[in-house]
Design goal:
This protein has 404 residues and is α/β, with parallel strands linked by helices. The chain folds into 2 domains: 156 residues, Beta Barrel (Lyase, Ornithine Decarboxylase, Chain A, domain 1); 243 residues, Alanine racemase (TIM Barrel, Alpha-Beta Barrel). The chain is 30% helix and 23% strand. The chain is elongated. The strands form 3 sheets. Strands 4, 13, 14, 15, 16, 17, 18, 19 and 20 form a 9-stranded mixed β-sheet that branches. Strands 5-6-7-8-9-10-11-12 form an 8-stranded parallel beta barrel, surrounded by 4 helices. The protein has a 3-stranded antiparallel β-sheet with strand order 1-2-3. Strand 7, helix 5 and strand 8 form a beta-alpha-beta unit. The chain binds pyridoxal-5'-phosphate. The site of pyridoxal-5'-phosphate has 17 residues, from helix 10.
Amino acid sequence: MKYIGKNFVMEGVKIRNLVKKFETPLYCYSYKKLKKNINQFKINFKNLNPIICFAVKANSNIKLLKEIQKLGLGADVVSLGELMKALKAGVNPKKIVFSGVGKTSEELDFAIQKEILLINAESKSEILEIEKIAKKKKKIVNIGIRLNPNTDARTLKKISTGKKQDKFGVSEKYFLELVNYLKDSKFINLKCISVHIGSQILNHQPYEKMLKVVDRVIKKSKYKFEFIDLGGGMGISYGEKDKSLNYRKYSIAIRKIVKKYKTKIIFEPGRSIIGNTAILVSRIIYIKQGSSKNFVILDAAMNDLMRPALYGAKHKIIPENKNNILSKKTYEFVGPICESSDKFLTAKKFQKLKEKDLIIISDVGAYGMSLSSNYNVRLKPPEILIKGYKVNVIKKRQKFKDII
Ligand SMILES: *Cc1c(COP(=O)(O)O)cnc(C)c1O
């Protein structure tokens, strides 16, 4: 992704040409980036030889899931719908992990039927429910228990999941009780200890802390776990100020535990696989003069990309067509939705823009389209995948007849 001359180009395809055909707002993905991310992830943890399950909630486009599956990844799902999509995309059930605090009996029943790799349970009640279904179906079900390691992931508050006040997982003490309980279970085979402390983590230290807790809990349990599922959460760079996660240090810390307990590692990365593969292209509808700044009103809104409104996340915005003239006014990029939180970014130094110009919102591959909605009865945008100069529509723009 770069400029050729003045125009922004993705994998050799001029974005303005795509817009002529598909209009805006428009999600565009690069296959090359996706492949590169997956290879890089494998290289980062090469000496662990882990099972890598893509977190489907980061992006559940079936065509993308198919590509991800073909590149060797399994899936981490959090609902019946995601499980069905992963299976439809051809993911081997033996490479599917089911996470989540509130799996219904319908969801558990389906997962047990499909004999997936693991159901990561998060409470005693859930374990009892799994036992009940397994007994009825005369099956032995492989599960993990999610531990809440009470570790601060030091990321955005709303995407932190590993502190004791968070709803996820069970406490150390409760974990040990559940291990004990399951030792005598006829229908459940406890195979895994799982953790996931949050998302967009850029510092390896929270991971190291989490591993210390995992180490202690395994030791105390005196139980032989076949798998340690370390979840995902690896952060990506959304702006110049973000540093990058030290994978080497994280990997070294994991290696120690693996040697000690002879377990296999599972990862559930979402963002680090798909986050930087996509852009959201949008057209400026109006530019409105405010008292201290100019509002750049885009045709993309929080229904197309909710992260800024939901978590205060920042996505870099760049012009599609560079003119090298700096604007004197501060720009605030906003959508047309009737919510004050429907804004993407405030930019002090930006090139001079005019109405109808195209702009590009960066790194929207993860939790972009998957969090999109029809709020304000707005249509969901289309998704395009550029794969070796071929432009594939992997999701068409919604039509009003689909939703009205
Ligand atoms: C969301 C989630 C992930 C993926 O997190 P990323 O930050 O996208 O890597 C993995 N595991 C579980 C249990 C999750 O809830």
